[in-house]
Amino acid sequence: MTGDPGGVDDAAKVGSLSIRLGLGWAKSLSFTTGQCPVMKYNRQLMQAILFDKVKIADAVQATPITLDEAPKGYADFDAGAPKKYVLNPNGYVK
User: Fold this and answer.
1) Tens digits of per-residue pLDDT, 9-53?
2) What SUPFAM superfamilies does the record tag this protein with (predicted)?
3) Helix, strand or coil for residue 64?
4) FRET pair for 78, CA 20 to 30 Å: which of 11, 24, 27, 30?
């Protein structure tokens, strides 16, 4: 995990996670980690997006932009703007 200078506590600022295991144990919680199996869902999700069954921009609260608008989107991102963009070179994402 990377550090976050604006983290809520000292541990978060250096990329650590403080967990009180006793509280989790008392409530019978489980904690797992690992990578998401993206390839298992990638094709189905892409087809759903392309055939307009899933409104991806709405789902992730992003703004679709063209390739011509990409430099401005990257500049906004680098400046810390609280926006998400989806590159939409062919106009498929709605």
Assistant:
1) 888 888 887 777 787 777 888 877 888 888 888 889 888 888 888
2) NAD(P)-binding Rossmann-fold domains
3) strand
4) 11
